[in-house]
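Severity: low
Component: inverse-folding endpoint
Summary: output formatting inconsistent between runs
Steps to reproduce: submit the following structure tokens with default settings.
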């Protein structure tokens, strides 16, 4: 009985300790490069860790697209495989600047991925382009939920999108990007109880 009570206490403590799990890698670009990010370029786009104007620390991400009628894309892809469960609460936050020319816009998008390809849910965060200052850093935070199938993890994607007009440009600066998951109620406890029962069977 004492062993069972102790085990339950440990499970409860573990559930609290794992209430918020950070999924991103190098969200502040403090490695001095773009480690952890995937980049899909256009003919005249660039993506790099920029030391000229970070929100905090020494670097920010700088995604610039100068190709008319196109989208340069960066993403943290397939995060949290085996950690994120269907329906888990996800909090996404970051600081951003928009420095866009005519027709230029930026988007932040979030996907629940299927193992082997495809998505079970996809959304534009905020339902519209990001509207940030071109001189001061703007903070964004979104709360959403994982889709019905996250066997391929979750993905956060940013785009620098230009209009189909000559001279359209799009530049997005981002810093302190964070994606955290709060597991669905009882998920961690059930995992712990499963381990406890397996241990009891072994004995």
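Observed output (run 2 of 3):
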């Amino acid at each position: 009985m004492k062993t069972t009570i102790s085990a339950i206490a440990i499970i409860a403590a573990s559930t609290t300790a794992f209430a918020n799990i950070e999924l991103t890698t190098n969200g502040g670009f403090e490695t001095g490069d773009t480690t952890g990010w995937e980049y899909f370029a256009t003919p005249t786009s660039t993506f790099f860790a920029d030391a000229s104007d970070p929100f905090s620390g020494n670097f920010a991400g700088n995604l610039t697209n100068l190709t008319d009628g196109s989208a340069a894309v960066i993403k943290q892809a397939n995060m949290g495989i085996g950690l994120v469960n269907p329906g888990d609460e996800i909090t996404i936050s970051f600081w951003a600047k928009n420095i866009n020319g005519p027709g230029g816009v930026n988007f932040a998008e979030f996907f629940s991925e299927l193992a082997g390809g495809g998505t079970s849910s996809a959304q534009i965060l905020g339902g519209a382009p990001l509207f940030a200052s071109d001189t001061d850093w703007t903070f964004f935070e979104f709360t959403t939920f994982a889709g019905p199938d996250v066997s391929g993890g979750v993905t956060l994607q940013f785009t620098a999108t230009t209009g189909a007009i000559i001279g359209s440009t799009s530049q997005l600066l981002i810093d302190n990007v964070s994606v955290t998951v709060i597991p669905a109620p009882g998920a961690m406890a059930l995992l712990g109880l499963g381990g406890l029962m397996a241990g009891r069977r072994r004995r």
